[in-house]
Amino acid sequence: MRVILSINAGSSSVKISVYAAEHGQAPSQLAEAQLSGLTSPPAELKYSRKDVTVCKDKKVGEDVKSQDDAFKVLLKTLVEDSDLAEISKKDDIAIACHRIVHGGDYTTSQKITEDTYHHLEALTDLAPLHNASALEIVKSCMAELPKATNVACFDSQFHSSIPEHIRTYPINPEIAKSNQLKKYGFHGISYQFITNSVSRFLSKLPKDLNIIALHLGSGASACAIKAGKSWDTSMGLTPLAGLPGATRSGSVDPSLVFHYASDVGKLSPSSTKELHISRAEEILNKESGWKALTGTTNFGIIAASDEPKHKLAFDLFVDRICGFVGSYYVSLGGKVDALVFAGGIGEKSDKLRRRVVEQVSCLGFEVDDALNGKQIEDVVQDVGKKGAKHRTLVCLTDEQFEMARGCAEDPELK
């Protein structure tokens, strides 16, 4: 039995799931710890051991400002828990797998060596707002857990199957190649989990599965999955393209940013020696989305409100989602087994699911109001109307499990 840590660093939180795994078998979760509110202190700790809630929304007294600070607090919490017998000391941890948003041309997860680490550092400019904090945690893991194997699991690797004509941008090919400018796609760890889970639910092999999957959260994307592999996805070179999010604009006219402000080409004052962010990137990634439209990043508030600004943000999100559903339906030639909602909003907002499905009902999707109104508790749950041409499902996606599963099945990590 090996202990695997699955580490998922978000923009304002860090989550660690702890698994016990035998090689080649599905991992079993032992514990989960999360520190959230890094951008709006004080940070809060949530910690559970199997089915026992140890603490919830506990204010953390330590000075926690970065994802790396949060990781160190979480690791300390796990190691010092006398009831978590599987981790009595740091050396009990065999594998630490890390969610890295941008993996460039890596098509599989990678053991992190010094060379791999430096290669990932070089990719930071392609995802400056995402890779840097994850790599800080990798560096800490290498120092704090010297006996553990560190593995990078990339959000982009699932999309390496996207065909050339879809991933290519119509720009100078030589410049595109030398600067690595193409569609990479993200949320791939989630889409891999969704593909595996839905194929089991529908009793189909992944190679026989065609779905349109929607990962909808503060970061949101859509993916056309053909024969169990990514065929197209809404995010592109970076996670900015496609659907709007809590603070991201999603796709806009590329010229818009130059009309927005005069200093967009300059480095943002929040740039550091390691992290170069232009004002344009900062505006479109951190000062847009439904926060810009409504003043809140909480989509639950937006969905429940009749205020004009909230209604506008809700309708805009539904419209953009439906645009991708229609496009991918055509791209898949109408051969679609299911429309699948996932991510925090996809799982929790029955109102959003209903509105999206109503708007794309001409394609053969229908929602059952009674099923759609139920709490989502199963890994995959049907919310579609019986007899509809295509299924409508909700999937409780689990990126940490998917990373641990990949490590447990990797022959090189025996």
Main sheet overview: 8 strands, mixed
Intertermini distance = 11 Å
* SSE-based structural type: alpha/beta
Compute the number of strand runs: 14
Shape: globular
Rg on CA atoms, Å? 21 Å
Low-confidence stretches: none
Strand order of the largest sheet: 5-4-3-2-1-6-8-7
What letter string, H or E per element, gives the SSE order? EEEEEHEEHHEHHHEEEHHHHHEHHHEEH
Mean pLDDT: 93
Give the number of helices.
Answer: 15
Helical content band: 25-40%
Q: What percent strand?
A: 15-25%
Binding site for ATP: 15, 215-219
Binding site for substrate: 99
Family: Belongs to the acetokinase family.
Organism: Neoarthrinium moseri
Description of the molecule:
It is a single chain. This protein has 414 residues and is α/β, with parallel strands linked by helices. Helix content is 34%, strand content 21%. The chain has helices at 67-79, 114-122, 131-144, 164-167, 173-178, 188-201, 256-260, 279-286, 289-294, 299-304, 308-331, 343-348, 350-359, 369-373, 399-409; strands spanning 2-9, 13-21, 28-36, 44-49, 52-59, 93-100, 110-111, 149-154, 211-216, 220-226, 229-233, 338-342, 380-382, 391-395. The protein has an eight-stranded mixed sheet, sandwiched between helices. It has a six-stranded mixed sheet with strand order 11-10-9-12-14-13, sandwiched between helices. The longest helix is centred in the C-terminal third of the chain and has 24 residues, at 308-331. The active site is at residue 155. Pathway: Metabolic intermediate biosynthesis; acetyl-CoA biosynthesis; acetyl-CoA from acetate: step 1/2. Mg(2+) binds at residues 8, 399. The record marks 187, 248 as: Transition state stabilizer.
